[in-house]
Amino acid sequence: MTESCYFSDPVKTDLKMDWSITCILWYFIPFYLLVHFVCFVFADADFTLLSSCLIGHKPETKLKGLVVWVTGASSGIGEELAYQLAKCGSRLILSARREEELKRVKRHCLENSNLKDEDILVLPLDLLERTSHEEKTNTVIQYFGHIDVLINNGGRSQRSLFLETSVEVYEALMELNFLGTVSMTKQVLPHMTQRGRGSIVTVSSAVGLIGAPLSTGYSASKHALQGFFNSLRAELTDFPKILISTVCPGPVQSLIVHNAFTEDLNKPMAIVGSQGYKMPTSRCVRLMLVGMANGVKEMWIAQQPFLLIYYLWQYAPTFAWVITDLIGRKRVQNFKSGVDADSAYFTKPKTS
């Protein structure tokens, strides 16, 4: 018998293996992409944050017993943060200007958690009164002994056209949203560097990444926060246990629109439309806590189609400009015709 009867051709064997691998990849890659596409369609946060939801640490474990200072805690995202942190077992400092509202939030926390009265400190605070921030920080440290987490949540939004808006509104937005947050961070961060650990979590916005009409000043203040904390994070590489995290929510159900600046400092919002299409505050806060528990440095939180805009700006900015211009034009048209700006994507402009 010849030698070929006992040994197969190695070239043919290699070709068969290559063909098998090619076939597997031919079917696997489209399936892989399809799965990710379906997940993205139903996603309400970036993939890093959603993966933390599935396989990461649970807030109930990582945040239990931590001392957490929440600014802007009297309503909206800050109020919901207080409720969910209380259920996680975190000890809380609740700060905002309205003391009675803070007391109401504290009562709700105590009624719906295992915390005791001494586990929650109500500490009225005005972000504009920066000279008081050192004293407030010392009060917290004297009460609890340390601060594990500072959540910079206080601030105001804006609904007005640039050409109609006074410079004083822009000054107020920067003073409150940017300098007020920087001042709080300035007081708390040295305490964390001394301990070698801690977290500073700042609620920015989608418009901190993407410009939006009717929010020029608000967007500028949030862009400033993004630049500040991205730079600060790089300065703190010698402190690997200090987390600097920014949260960029899209439209969320809250009272921030009701309190938004208009073209004049003392002019209230005339129209506030339905917020039913926005993300529930409870879902936004849950994602925030997951990000905090897993050390996520930047969180994108938004329902579709808003989440898609984040990714377009990140990976296809030229195309994103086209989409932004289309959305912006409709937003301005609705605003001028008397329709609530936040409903601009879901309602038709009024016609005369």
TrEMBL record:
One family name in Pfam for this protein: adh_short
Any one GO molecular-function label of the UniProt entry: oxidoreductase activity
Keywords in alphabetical order, please: Membrane, Oxidoreductase, Transmembrane, Transmembrane helix
Q: Does the keyword Disulfide bond apply?
A: no
Q: Which residues cross the membrane?
A: 24-43
| Family named by the database record | Belongs to the short-chain dehydrogenases/reductases (SDR) family.
Protein name (Swiss-Prot/TrEMBL): Dehydrogenase/reductase SDR family member 7
Organism taxonomic ancestry: Eukaryota, Metazoa, Chordata, Craniata, Vertebrata
